[in-house]
Amino acid sequence: MTHQKHFEFNAFAENTYVLYSDNKEAAIIDPGCSTPEECKCLADFIKSEGLKPIMLLNTHCHIDHILGNHFVYSEYGLAPILHRNELSLLQSLSKVAAFYGVNATPSPEPLRFIEEHEKIKLGDSTLEVIYSPGHSPGSVCFYNVKEKKLWGGDVLFRESIGRTDLPGGDYDTLEHNILTKIFTLPDEVEVFSGHGVPTTIVHEKINNPFVGSAFTSR
Predict the structure, then answer these.
(1) What is the DSSP letter of 60?
(2) Which residue in 60, 76, 90, 139 is deepest, having the highest Cβ count within 10 Å?
(3) Whole-angstrom Cα distance, residue 77 to residue 31?
(4) Residue 70 — left, alpha, or beta (φ > 0 → left; ψ -120 to 50 → alpha)?
(5) How many Cα atoms within 13 Å fall on the side-chain side of residue 69?
(6) What is the pTM of this model?
């Protein structure tokens, strides 16, 4: 079984997730911790639960989702795992941080790149990679088929979707991927997004004003 702990970090109110199995192996998804206090909060939880972080996963590499990459690398020796189309965003962290007036330490280079449909093992659970660009060029979601849970980054929010006006974003691409890859998952799948509160696939099919009507009209 996969357990999770959620943190809301940094000025962008980004959701960081720690997923962990019964054997205490843990994956850190999108560490947004940007201050010593936030980093300590993350580390204290991991220590208190006796977890062994074994991987750092980035759904995408916008600044708010990777501000803690360096901390996770320095603390646990984990370099990020991400889609290759996010590499330029990862490497532009310092430039983007300067634009926003945010302090940021550059992220380590990726450990490796992930591919669509790849299956990532965490204890006795499996996360399937769903390639879902549109918010950014290489956005991915991590789907636990057995437990019907999706960690979706900024692809889909409760009654909203990821913005598409940043470099590399494209609304038509995002809509297509939500309709053909995310909305085809079972209705009861829980969606844990990069910002805001959780939702479900069925709730978004019915209530999402950006893509729900496009789905129901099919």
Answers:
(1) -
(2) 139
(3) 14
(4) alpha
(5) 28
(6) 0.95
